[in-house]
Write a structure and sequence with these properties.
Blueprint lengths: L1 H15 L11 H8 L9 H16 L12 H9 L4 H11 E4 L2 E4 L15 E6 L2 E10 L3 E11 L5 E10 L8
Antiparallel strand pairs: 1-2, 3-4, 4-5, 5-6
């Protein structure tokens, strides 16, 4: 009887410890690893589009309440160093986080309108060093807007998010 219990426990531990190898992990360590794999040398449009989507996903990741890997301003700056312009990262931090006793805390607020790769979007490579993703959306909270994320190649020859712009649609009285 004890042998059967041990065998069942071993089988259960093996079963529940299996992790599929194709899961994309978005953590600061994974982001750094992803960029160190030579992705900056990809030049085909589909590969560039995948890079742009990955960077957009990684940029917004710190707003996820389950993300507790980043605590200090230095942690955040090191995280964003690999995926965005540091001035843009600073604006993002100042908007959504407050520093208390050396630790950055998320300001309780609605998340910004952000890119969702499951919805229609437009990707364009502007030049060898610039690309953009644009996405139109309409929500009760944000209204109608077009989000445009600008990317550029950094001095280290790595793609980073350079700017984010929102084009708010104006409603006329006839539309109301």
């Amino acid at each position: 009887m004890p042998t059967q219990i041990i065998t069942n426990m071993l089988a259960a531990s093996l079963l529940f410890s299996f992790i599929p190898m194709d899961i994309k992990v978005h953590s600061p360590q994974a982001v750094h690893l992803e960029h160190s794999k030579g992705m900056e040398n990809i030049n085909d449009e589909k590969g560039l589009e995948e890079i742009a989507i990955g960077l957009a996903d990684d940029f917004i990741l710190p707003l996820n309440p389950a993300n507790d890997d980043l605590k200090t301003k230095e942690d955040f700056i090191n995280y964003y160093r690999n995926i965005s312009d540091l001035d843009l990262a600073g604006e993002f931090l100042n908007t959504f986080f407050i520093e208390k006793n050396g630790v950055l805390e998320h300001i309780p607020t609605e998340p910004p309108l952000w890119f969702d790769s499951k919805l229609p979007y437009e990707f364009r490579q502007i030049s060898e060093t610039e690309m953009i993703i644009s996405q139109y959306s309409s929500t009760d909270l944000h209204g109608s807007a077009t989000l445009t994320i600008f990317y550029k190649k950094s001095a280290e020859n790595r793609w980073v998010i350079n700017d984010v712009q929102y084009g708010m649609e104006q409603e006329t009285l006839n539309e109301v």
